[in-house]
Fold this sequence. Notes:
Helix content is about 60%, strand content about 5%. With about 240 residues, the protein is mostly helical. It has a single domain (about 50-240), classed as Biosynthetic peptidoglycan transglycosylase-like (Penicillin binding protein transpeptidase fold), CATH 1.10.3810. It has a 3-stranded mixed beta sheet with strand order 1-3-2, covered by helices on one side. Helix 1 (about 15-40) packs across helix 6 (about 135-150). The N and C termini lie far apart (about 95 Å). About 30% of the residues are buried.
Amino acid sequence: MAKKTNGRRKAPKKSFFRRLFKYFIRLSLAWLLITSLLVLSLRWFDPPTTAFMLQRQWQDEATIQQQWVDLENISPHLVLSVIASEDQKFLLHWGFDVQAIQQVLAEHSSGKKLRGASTISQQLAKNLFLWSGRSLLRKGLEAYFTAAIEIYLPKRRILELYLNVAELGDTIYGAEAAARHIYNIPARQLNRQQSALLAARLPAPKSYQINPPSEYMQQRAAWIRGQIKQLGEYRLLQELGL
């Protein structure tokens, strides 16, 4: 006689790839939650250090110079100089200057040397959370953290963070440390020329000397001051609440 069965079929075992996919989804959700909370916390809490500072300390055993100050204690001239120098559409975009990126890619395709087109938000994301160097992984993470910064932080806070963590000299981070080390004054007392020179130094703070400034740096500072006038100094200050 044929052996009777209860009519039920055994449930198939979960495949390895299905379990791996579920694990990946859970890991991704955990990553999103942790990094979102990390960026959101910057709305109220000042970061004690950054990835770039830690990397410099670890690689070169360097002594970092940094002193946190609120945006109100940073000269408006420096705020405007940094916007004019680094990201003139800072108040208009959502973290990425698409037009600037397209222009850079067009120049590169025509044979010109590839130059940067990073916004202030992108530079902040890189300084806070990532490492120096170039790779697709780092660029992807930079885009992710940039988007998170723009979603969770107001523009004024982004500027405050950037002006406190940007490298403005060899092992010198932030406006206050730079102003005291280079000019022996607090950041709130920086004048137009000093502010323009500090902003002009941002592309290569270890190489560009500004005390005394070279002819190139004087020309660069003059260009920055001219850009501030074109952008509308008082309008920008009003929009930033300064």
